[in-house]
Design a protein that fits this description.
There is one protein chain. By secondary structure, this protein is an alpha+beta fold. It is about 25% helix and about 25% strand. It contains three helices and nine strands, in the order ααβββββββαββ. Strands 1, 2, 3, 6, 7, 8 and 9 form a seven-stranded antiparallel beta sheet that branches. The longest helix has 21 residues. The relative contact order is 0.20.
C-alpha cells in the first residue's frame, strides 16, 4: 500500500513538473521577440547612407540621426547643464512607419503638440527640459544640435528606457524614434 502511495505521489510530482516546465511565460517570450525586433531594426540602420552616428561616450553605445532641417551654424550647442526648449514627437516601433520613415499619427507615446500646450494664436509652445534630466540618448544628441536644427533620432534601448521601459506605453528594450527640433538653449 505504501509503495502505491509513493508511486502515485511520484507520478503526480513528475507530471506536474513536466506540465510547468512546458509552460512558457508569455511575458518573457514577448519581451524576447520585442527585444529581437528592436535590435534587428537598430542594427539595420547602419546600412543607411542618410543617417549619421553619434557615440554616447559613456560606453553605452551610440545612436543614429537624420537631419530634417538645419539651423544656423553660428548658434551655440547646449551642454549637459543647460536647459532647452524643443518641439518633439516620440514613438516606438509600434508607432513608426519604417517604409515611410515617419511617426504614425496617433501612435506616438509623447509629443509637445498636445492640447493645452499652445499660445492664444494657435501656435504650440515648445517643451522645456533640463538636459541632465533627460534620457541619455536625448542629451547625447542635443549636445550635437544647434537651435533651428530638426533631427529624427533613433535611440537604442540602452540609451533610452533600457530593459524596464516606461509606464505602459514604452515596453522594455524599445528603440525610441523622435522627431526633435531644438528651439533654444537656456544657460
Amino acid at each position: 500500500m505504501n509503495q502505491k502511495i509513493y508511486f502515485i505521489s511520484f507520478l503526480f510530482l513528475f507530471l506536474t513538473g513536466l506540465f510547468f516546465s512546458g509552460c512558457k511565460d508569455d511575458n518573457d517570450s514577448g519581451d524576447s521577440e520585442w527585444k529581437t525586433e528592436n535590435e534587428v531594426f537598430f542594427n539595420n540602420l547602419a546600412s543607411r547612407s542618410d543617417l549619421y552616428r553619434v557615440d554616447a561616450g559613456s560606453g553605452s553605445g551610440y545612436l543614429y540621426y537624420k537631419v530634417l532641417k538645419s539651423g544656423s551654424a553660428d548658434q551655440k550647442r547646449p551642454v549637459y547643464t543647460d536647459s532647452i526648449n524643443v518641439y518633439y514627437t516620440g514613438a516606438t516601433l509600434a508607432g513608426f512607419d519604417i517604409s515611410g520613415d515617419t511617426i504614425v499619427a496617433g501612435k506616438w507615446f509623447d509629443t509637445s503638440y498636445i492640447d493645452g500646450k499652445y499660445v492664444e494664436d494657435g501656435i504650440y509652445k515648445p517643451a522645456g527640459f533640463r538636459m541632465n534630466k533627460l534620457i541619455e540618448g536625448w542629451w547625447v544628441a542635443l549636445q550635437e544640435m544647434r537651435p533651428g536644427d530638426k533631427w529624427q533620432l533613433y535611440i537604442p534601448w540602452q540609451l533610452g528606457y533600457k530593459e524596464a521601459g516606461s509606464g505602459t506605453t514604452i515596453p522594455g528594450y524599445s528603440v525610441l524614434i523622435f522627431d526633435v527640433e531644438l528651439v533654444s538653449v537656456i544657460q
